[in-house]
Amino acid sequence: MKELKYTGQFKKDLKRIQNNPKRIAGLKKALKILQETGTLPKEYEPHLLTGDYKGCMECHVESDFLLIWLNETGNIIKLVRLGSHSELF
User: Fold this and answer.
1) What contacts 3, CB < 8 A, 6 or more positions away?
2) The pTM of the whole model exceeds 0.90
3) Active-site residue identified among 22, 29, 47, 85
4) What is the DSSP letter of 50?
5) pLDDT tens for each residue of 20-59
6) How far is CA 80 from each of CA 12, 34, 87, rounded to the nearest angstrom?
7) Backbone angles phi, psi at 64, to 5 degrees
8) Cα–Cα distance measured from residue 80 to residue 54, given in angstroms and rounded to the nearest whole number
């Protein structure tokens, strides 16, 4: 099982969506899979990013609700950002 570490920016992003139970439920499901397996199934459309987030992975928790993370050495997954396309890019 992987250990999830949260960046300060991720915590701010999470706080912004706290009043949306549908998004929270979807995020919890995705994080559980990510923590257990270290990756996400194709339905989440996981892919490697370039540019400002070079080296990070991104997935679609919902159609326009994205999770960005970084697989660090060992059993650590660093959760970097959370939000819509317009908020993140």
Assistant:
1) 35, 75, 76, 77
2) yes
3) 85
4) -
5) 999 999 999 999 999 999 999 999 999 999 999 999 999 9
6) 11, 14, 13
7) -125, 45
8) 12
